[in-house]
């Protein structure tokens, strides 16, 4: 664990702490299956156990941690069965968000998504994978926002953490990265045409391709046994 971690600012303690711990999980500082070292984290981040445990509850609800009664928490692991359970549900939610977004999309929504797409395309050209992944997340969130359905958004958010965890447990080949970029180009074209059926199909296929990549990484022992790979789309 990085000994140079800075104390968390007191102004937005809870939000910053949750985000900091998420980052430690996704970066592999806290590895799948490991117990969360509460006292060590308190010392590193300059906090007491009370705010730490509140943050752990949030990450437990996101599926990133397993909360152990009277025994702290453990970083979640993902099996092929977990992937087969989670990804079809997320795929259905993504497909619905695409249909609703095309029906309710405003010009400002489309302009925002297009700007993000071109930014992501630049990161792809430069092979800046982590920046690409960050903007990619923003695009999916913008499509969800454009759907204007709070119930859908709540269900999506409930699974988003585990999907992101799965992404960080696999490496992406250049071929898959190029394929993902082409899929995003199809998404943008469908949004511009307000073609909900087409966008729904592309989003479903996009997530199915991700599922197979993650499952192959699990079979190959990438992630839990060797630490997380590089985030992929």
Q: Provide the CATH architecture of the largest domain.
A: Up-down Bundle
SSE class: mainly alpha
CATH class of the largest domain: Mainly Alpha
How much helix, percentage-wise, in residues? 55-70%
Secondary-structure element order, N to C = HHHEEHHHHHH
Shape: globular
Task: Describe the SSE topology.
Blueprint (H helix, E strand, L loop, with lengths): L12 H15 L10 H8 L3 H13 L3 E4 L3 E4 L4 H25 L2 H19 L3 H19 L2 H18 L6 H19 L3 H24 L14
Antiparallel strand pairs: 1-2
Helix pairs in contact: 1-3, 4-6, 4-7, 4-9, 5-6, 5-8, 8-9
Question: Could you characterize what this model shows?
Answer:
This protein has about 230 residues and is mainly alpha-helical. It folds into 2 domains: about 15-75, Orthogonal Bundle (Arc Repressor Mutant, subunit A), CATH 1.10.10.10; about 80-220, GntR ligand-binding domain-like (Four Helix Bundle (Hemerythrin (Met), subunit A), Up-down Bundle), CATH 1.20.120. It is built from 9 helices and 2 strands; from the N terminus they run αααββαααααα. Strands 1-2 form a two-stranded antiparallel sheet. The longest helix is centred in the middle third of the chain and has 25 residues, at about 80-105.
Give the key terms.
mainly alpha; single chain; Four Helix Bundle (Hemerythrin (Met), subunit A); Arc Repressor Mutant, subunit A; two-stranded antiparallel ribbon; 233 residues; 2 strands
Quick rundown:
By secondary structure, this protein is mainly alpha-helical. Helix content is 69%, strand content 3%.
């Amino acid at each position: 664990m990085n000994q140079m971690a800075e104390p968390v600012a007191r102004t937005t303690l809870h939000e910053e702490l949750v985000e900091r711990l998420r980052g430690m999980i996704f970066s592999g500082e806290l590895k799948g299956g490991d117990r969360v070292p509460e006292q060590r984290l308190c010392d590193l981040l300059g906090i007491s156990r009370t705010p730490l445990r509140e943050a752990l509850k949030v990450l437990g609800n996101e599926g990133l941690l397993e909360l152990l009664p009277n025994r702290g928490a453990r970083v979640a692991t993902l099996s092929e069965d977990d992937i087969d359970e989670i990804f079809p549900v997320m795929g259905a939610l993504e497909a619905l968000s695409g249909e609703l977004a095309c029906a309710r999309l405003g010009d400002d929504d489309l302009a925002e998504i297009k700007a993000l797409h071109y930014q992501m395309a630049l990161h792809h050209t430069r092979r800046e994978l982590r920046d690409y992944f960050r903007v990619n997340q923003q695009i999916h969130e913008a499509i969800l926002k454009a759907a204007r359905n709070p119930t859908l958004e709540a269900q999506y958010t409930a699974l988003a953490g585990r999907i992101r965890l799965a992404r960080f447990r696999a490496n992406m080949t250049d071929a898959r990265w190029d394929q993902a970029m082409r899929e995003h180009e199809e998404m943008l074209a469908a949004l511009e045409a307000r073609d909900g059926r087409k966008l729904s199909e592309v989003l479903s296929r996009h997530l199915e391709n991700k599922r197979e990549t993650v499952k192959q990484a699990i079979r190959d022992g990438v992630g839990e046994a060797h630490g997380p790979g590089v985030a992929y789309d």
